[in-house]
Amino acid sequence: MVKNLLTGFLVVVLILPAFAQRKQASPQIVKKPLTHAAYDEWKSITYKELTNDGKYAAYTLNPEAADGKLVLMDLSINTKDEVPRAENIKQGWDSRYSFMLIKAQKDLVKELRREKKKKEDMPKDTLGIYSWTNKKLEKIPHVKSYKIPEKAGNWIAYQLEAVTEAEKEKTNGNGQENSEKAKPARKISDENGFPLILSNLDNGKQMTFGFVKDYTFAENGEGLLFHTTGDNGELQPGIYWYDLNEGKLQSVFEANRKHKFKYLSIDDSGSKVAFIADLDTTKALVREPKLYYWDKSISNAIVLADQSTTGIPEEWLVSENFNPYFSKDGSKLFFGTNPVPFVKDTALLAEEIVNVEVWHWQDDYIYPEQNVRADRERKRSYLAVMHLDNRKLVQLGNEKMEDINVGEEGNSKYALGKDDRKYRISRTWDTGGAHDLYIVNVADGSSKLIESGVQGYSRLSPSAQYAYWFSNPDTAWFAHHITSGKTLKLTSGMGIPFADEENDVPDYPSSYGLAGWTKDDARILVYDKYDIWSFDPQGKEDPINLTKDGREKKITYRYVNLDREKQFIDQDEVMLLTAFDEKSKSSGYVRYSLKDRKLDPLVMSAHRYGGIQKSKEADLYLYTKENFQEFPDLYVSDLNFSKPKKISEANPQQKEYIWGTAELVYWNSLDNIPLEGILYKPENFDPNKKYPMVVVYYERFSNTIHQHHKPEPIRSLVHRTMYVSNDYLIFVPDVVYSTGYPGESAFNCIIPGVNHLISQGFVDKDRVGIQGHSWSGYQTAYILTRTNMFRAAEAGAIVANMTSAYGGIRWESGRARMFQYEKAQSRLGVSLWENPLPYIENSPLFFANKIETPILLLHNDADGAVPWYQGIEMYLAMRRLNKPTWMLNYNGEPHWPVKRENRIDFQTRMMQFFDHYLKDAPMPRWMERGVPAIEKGIYQGLELVGEEDGI
């Protein structure tokens, strides 16, 4: 008896600790599949920045349809402050302040819109000034806009909105309690202007300028330039300069309230000013703007140029649509001119006006493109320059040479001109882009042709010693030495391609681009597929492969410019390069010393890195790191990436959901071409189970294996994460193409890839779907005419009939569609009249009778890329053939649904469609009976058949 009691006691003693441990352990999270309701939970980091001293970081966490927040982090002590609803965020130059506009709550704004509140009664923005020193936020209500000097940290200027009578009872519009009501002499408005508060952040002193319409700071904080319509007191209408160093207000130009001013410009030294003025107070249809100039040596601004100034072409005007700018050294002022515009006869009645389009066969641009370009052409300006030392005006651009690029930030005596007139007609059927190159003398406007018919990128070198370009037909880089007039082909006879090695369209391959030029234009650094090469533009020294082993190791190196203002690469610079391993798809960063020609690996992992920036004054990087499982959160690191620190956790709720994995898949096409693709699996994948699978694709995607796909209602494709979370497999195969056989090429690449996965044993061969949009939507429709392998298919914005699509218009751009088929993505390589057979053979419409797969089509009636009548042709064919087909048209939407509600609706319907055919889920009502026009916008039909009956 005693023995049994002791035994029982020992058992209890031994069991209790284990029980206690289990009780203390955190309960295991039971994960749930993603649903469309989860979209609202996910946040994006839409803004990120380090302060210049590297002590602080700021970033936003913004959901798509709710209020977000700004996170302000002290990196030294890992503390965070948050400001809700912050937008238009800027960091002060001296790292003491962070500035922002705080918006009203989205729900409140929506509710007020429902109540039909007027614009002036809607909530106003609040200016937020966050002090990094004392971690406090100052709020100033009713702020319309704010500006700070780009490179000075002790000033801010902001405009106050007009406030309602109710708001005036509480404040005087400046955040201070009213002691005495004061009614302004004139209404604060867009026409009259708004109060401008200039605040010194060092001592808190403020100045108020009334009825300001426009304002800008000098870059380095020398002064504030503004236009006011006058405050009924000492401040008369005109342009003013407030000297921030001397605390002195100076009139630049006296005006009256009806005068109009645009484009307040200040030179880099903060001592010269320019603006455009229209002083005609009549209602003349032809305006005659004037270019005004002021500096501290003159009391009042002077007219620098108008229609009567020597140098401006006859019957031309100073442009009111061009923002004047000074050269870097302040010696020149560049501005725009234009011919006197055509104006309507306002005396005619509407019925007396003839509106007719005359389509001429030799128009530069076809009429639909002219319509798209019309507003741009009405505002077109041609570059002119005023040499400030001798007041000589030189017209640089003209109707023959519209495009002028100045050199050396405007300091150079040379510019690069481009003339594409004689190549415009061919854009109807060609990809376009050809132009003649000219060197333009900025001193007198003379020009010299240096190359004809350039197809490819062209620019001036940073110091403007060379014009350089990549010639697509030659697949080579060229450099033209301006002084000697000699042109050198840089990449000649090397046996290394510097153009796209994987180009599979019937057109010239494009370049891999360039890293830039070294100081004084000594070397130009260009890319091949993998490496960075250094070329002597004079051709005296041999090219140098800087990165050396990229091609051998199949690693692609690219330069990261961490300073947006830098015009060249220093000869002694230690460059930061991205590195991408083509085989493993890993990526990271390496460091390269131009001086020592040494390459040092820094970090490399199975991730995708991006958005990297460096603090201006500290050795600190801010960047993102992501893969399929990891959201692109923010990291900070030293320049060696030795101790990276994660500073954001944007979406901690992800751990509550079933996610997935991504892996590379390899197979050969029916043409025996080695291919790659991505297979996404549920995270609880069971290799002994049979899974439904959806094929999603668009040319090549395998290099994106480490891209994160957060839950969001994407526009047009199956959402990979959403589907694998719901027990699907998603297969994303690469597709390569042969000219003349785009549809067959897709078939040859995709079908063996699907068969390869079926042979692994975990794909249910009877439950495979396929989905594509636009180009892949077309391919999906074509593939269905060749195989019954797929149980269901969704195809969006397809081209069903290449013969009719060839003669169509891309209405968004106004361009003819011909180039698409002859030279671009459709890859037929011939015109319809040279060989009509490929147009017919590659058109699924002509073989629709062979399709047995149920299809869900999407084609919106405002599609500006693929005319929606292409979707209609396919829908009507399937209807005539009595084959199961549905077509979604989101009224007024373009190439894909843009409005968030429509994107969610489309993703919901598409998943219901695949769930029904691939998982035997009940059919939704919209599939069973449709949604009649009288029910549109009222009844959506998303409930499942039997759902309402509790079945």
UniProtKB/TrEMBL annotation:
GO terms for biological process: proteolysis. Residues 745-920 form the Peptidase S9 prolyl oligopeptidase catalytic domain. InterPro entries: AB_hydrolase_fold, Peptidase_S9_cat, Serine_Prot_S9B/DPPIV. GO terms for molecular function: aminopeptidase activity; dipeptidyl-peptidase activity; serine-type peptidase activity. Residues 1-20 form the signal peptide. It holds the Pfam family Peptidase_S9. Residues 167-186 are annotated as: Disordered. It comes from the Bacteria. Keywords: Aminopeptidase, Hydrolase, Protease, Signal. PANTHER family: DIPEPTIDYL PEPTIDASE 9 (PTHR11731:SF193), PROTEASE FAMILY S9B,C DIPEPTIDYL-PEPTIDASE IV-RELATED (PTHR11731). This is Dipeptidyl aminopeptidase/acylaminoacyl peptidase.
